[in-house]
Amino acid sequence: MPNVKGYITRKTMLYKTGVEYGDYTMNHVLGCAHGCKYPCYAFLQKKRFGSISSYEEWTEPYIVSNTLELLDKEIPRLKQKIKSVHLCFTTDPFMYGYDEIKDISLKAIRKLNDAGIKCTVLTKGLLPIELANFSKMNEYGITLISLNEEYRKKIEPGSAKYVNRLSHLHYLHDSGCKTWVSVEPYPTPNIITQNLDDILKSISFTDKIIFGRTNYSNEITSYTAHKSFYNHEAQKVINFCENQHILYHIKKGTITA
Ligand code: SF4
Q1: Nearest CA owner, ligand 1 atom 6
Q2: Where do the domains of the chain lie, and which CATH numbers do they carry?
Q3: Which pLDDT does position 8 carry in this prediction?
Q4: Closest CA to 201 of 218, 221, 181, 186
Q5: FRET label pair with 105: which of 69, 136, 188, 247, CA 20 to 30 Å apart?
Q6: Pocket of ligand 1 contains residue 30 by CB under 6 Å
Q7: Is there an atom of ligand 1 within 6 Å of 177 CB?
Q8: Which range, of 19-28, 84-93, 243-252, averages the lowest pLDDT?
Q9: pLDDT-based confidence at 220, cuts 50/70/90?
Q10: pTM
Q11: Angle, to 10 degrees, between the axis of helix 67-78 and the axis of helix 99-114?
């Protein structure tokens, strides 16, 4: 089991996000050992603003040690305004192999739920099975952009295996929890040849699917057919979800004229 690199403190924890889906969010860890190479937008931003200097540093996470104290202070002030809290946009709440991060994330979710606040969760690690006993208003999600393990090792090197991610999500679904899958950032065929139908079939039990293109990558923009490819694949997702009665959301900029 890896240990976190260390601890930092912050002045605030809950904030309103401008991101397309999501209301409030919290990021109680700095860095992410999953080390995604899409590249990771959070890593690029932290590097740009100087809080991280290298990829290696990014993959050695620091826990915000005063997370629970901050929540105790902020929840009473904000709870009337908050519709939901998303964990997390700039790190991963269930970073693969990091029990200490898992523990603090579960405590944070418990605290938010106790105040009547719904949480949405997204991970490339394993969703803890304990979540089955948490509030049923929560929504639990995984990212799944492929089923090919060789590709995962290359692009999401520190993350959990796809098959294990799926089995934990399935367990929560079978326990009566709401589940969703983010198929984003979806790669173009010059990066990996795969069949989106196979991915969709593997997640047909979920309540919601989010599909989005890869941004910020030269490999994508150099693939001249990327617009028609994403239009075609997005339509596939829409047709699949409508047939299976699954909710869906196609991220902005994925379908273009
Ligand atoms: S899991 Fe998310 S936060 Fe972590 S490196 Fe990957 S994209 Fe970035």
Answers
A1: 36
A2: 6-250 (3.20.20.70)
A3: 97
A4: 181
A5: 247
A6: no
A7: no
A8: 19-28
A9: low
A10: 0.96
A11: 20
